[in-house]
Design goal:
The protein is α+β, with helices and mostly antiparallel strands and 140 residues long. It is built from three helices and six strands, in the order H-H-E-E-H-E-E-E-E. Strands 2-1-6-5-4-3 form a six-stranded mixed beta sheet.
Length: 140
């Protein structure tokens, strides 16, 4: 009986940890998107992996340095990002997040355009923090 109780408590604690990680990552993802809108490159730098590959729906792929530079110079300007139907799957220290998003963006000072995108983001956990490792979007 005692062994059964110990096993049940062990699996319950695993579920709680997984839910906690998912909740933390959900918050991190939403905060990251708001940092893009606010052009908070300090936070973006802290929330992204040095090997970041940031893919756009038109095939354009930015490195971490390029993405930050494009935000700082105003080449890329996110006016709003709204994510919907966020689904997260965590496996060890890697997670994939899929969602549908409406991105209101202007490029190089041009007109603001709203893109309805299907997005996949890959996040890695380093220490206690989740970092964006890769992102790819397609028009949806």
């Amino acid at each position: 009986m005692r062994l059964l109780l110990t096993i049940a408590l062990f699996f319950t604690s695993l579920i709680v940890v997984a839910q906690t990680d998912e909740a933390k990552l959900t918050t991190t993802i939403k905060e990251f998107h708001q940092m893009l809108v606010k052009k908070n490159t300090v936070s973006i730098n802290q929330q992204t992996d040095k090997a970041l590959s940031y893919g756009h729906s038109n095939g354009w792929v930015e490195t971490k340095a390029e993405m930050i530079k494009n935000l700082e110079t105003g080449y890329t300007s996110y006016k709003s990002i709204k994510e919907d139907s966020l689904q997260i799957v965590i496996s060890g220290n890697v997670a994939n997040a899929r969602f549908v998003g409406d991105y209101e963006v202007s490029l190089n000072g041009g007109n603001t355009v709203i893109y309805h995108l299907k997005v996949l983001e890959v996040w890695v956990k380093k220490g206690k923090r989740w970092l964006l490792f890769a992102r790819q979007a397609v028009r949806g």
